[in-house]
Structures are given as structure tokens and as C-alpha cells.
Recover the amino acids of this structure.
């Protein structure tokens, strides 16, 4: 009887790590539904996060542009 519970415990432990990894991946790659506002002069962010800075830059490939730096938090989508 003890052997049965020992084998069951080993199976449960070996399934716990992949199960936790699966839950983490499902949480990390979730894609929540969002309503994108429509209208003239509206700016929509490409990412969720905190804006750190907005500045004008002179890029060699595209010329003058606005650089928006966003700090992304993987736990807050």
C-alpha cells in the first residue's frame, strides 16, 4: 500500500513542473480583447506599459522621428 502512494507521489511531482510551465505560458502569451478607439488625432500604443520618455530623434534610415520608450511588465497585460 505504501508503494502505491509513493509511485502516485512521484507521478504527481513529475506532472507538477510541466503543469506549472503550461500555466505560466498560457498566462504569458494571453491576448486580451481590446477596443481600439476610432477618431481623428488618436494615438494607440503598440504595447502595454509605462511610458518612460518621448523624444525627437534623427534616424539614419527614416529621418526625423519621435522615439517613445515604453517599459513593459510581463505580468500586466
Amino acid at each position: 500500500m505504501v508503494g502505491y502512494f509513493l509511485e502516485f507521489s512521484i507521478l504527481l511531482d513529475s506532472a507538477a513542473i510541466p503543469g506549472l510551465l503550461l500555466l505560466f505560458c498560457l498566462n504569458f502569451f494571453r491576448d486580451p480583447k481590446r477596443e481600439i478607439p476610432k477618431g481623428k488625432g488618436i494615438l494607440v500604443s503598440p504595447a502595454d506599459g509605462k511610458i518612460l520618455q518621448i523624444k525627437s530623434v534623427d534616424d539614419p534610415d527614416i529621418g526625423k522621428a519621435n522615439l517613445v520608450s515604453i517599459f513593459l511588465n510581463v505580468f500586466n497585460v
Q: What stands out?
A: The chain has one domain: 2-71. The radius of gyration is 23 Å. The longest helix spans residues 2-28.
